Amino acid sequence: MAEREERTFIMVKPDGVQRSLVGEIMERFEQRGYKLVGLKMMTAPKELLEMHYHELRERPFFPKLMAYMGSGPVVAMGMDIVAQGRAMLGATDPLKSAPGTIRGDYCQATGRNVCHGSDSKASAAREISLWFKDSELSHYTNEQHTKWVYE
Ligand code: DAT
Ligand code: MG
């Protein structure tokens, strides 16, 4: 199969970093066979977080969300996945997330839900370009993909 077109933005949030879940979360996507195309750790500036979550800026929890997301480093990833990424993440409220999903396995509070994943192809494209420069994204063939992951 040819290179897949999908791209999504996955981010281990500050609580996921603090709770040493970075490797675990990356491993789930890697082991499912998705390809990592970008990776970095950073404490996000307020302006970036405001742009990332601009759709939620009028919501009452927005100030708390900004404080939480800016409270420490996050690990940002580009991956070649969209729809299944949300399925692997679980629901926004971890208590409504099925066991087996990332949120269903590792957290309990909506305001500490350990990981972000883009909710559509359009938001994935927007978020990837917010968090990564073009030069920070790798273009390569995952050799497993061509033979052992996809038919
Ligand atoms: P998701 O992260 O599942 O895409 P979202 O985009 O609706 O959810 O919201 C972004 C984040 O904002 C979410 O992960 C946690 C926080 N959030 C959403 N709804 C909330 C609420 N009702 N109370 C507190 N925090 C909330
Ligand atoms: Mg969202």
Overview of the molecule:
- Pfam families: NDK (PF00334).
- The protein is globular.
- The chain is an alpha+beta fold.
- The protein is built from 8 helices and 4 strands.
- The protein has one domain: 2-Layer Sandwich (Alpha-Beta Plaits), CATH 3.30.70.141.
- Helices cover 40% and strands 14% of the residues.
- Bound molecules: 2'-deoxyadenosine-5'-diphosphate and magnesium ion (MG).
Cα distance spanning the termini: 6 Å
What structural category arises from helix and sheet content? alpha+beta
Poorly predicted sequence stretches spanning 5 or more consecutive residues: none
CATH A-level architecture: 2-Layer Sandwich
Shape: globular
- Cα radius of gyration in angstroms: 15 Å
> Oligomerization state of this entry?
single chain
Helix count equals 8
Give a count of the beta strands, DSSP E runs of length 2 or more: 4
Helical fraction = 40-55%
Bound heterogens, unique: 2'-deoxyadenosine-5'-diphosphate, magnesium ion
SSE run? EHHEHHEHHEHH
Largest sheet: 4 strands, antiparallel
Number of domains: 1
Could you say what the CATH topology is called? Alpha-Beta Plaits
State the strand order across the main sheet.
2-3-1-4
Instruction: Look at the structure and give the mean pLDDT.
Output: 94
* CATH class term: Alpha Beta
CATH superfamily: Nucleoside diphosphate kinase-like domain
Pfam family, one: NDK
EC number: 2.7.4.6
Domain Nucleoside diphosphate kinase-like: 5-139
Active site: 116
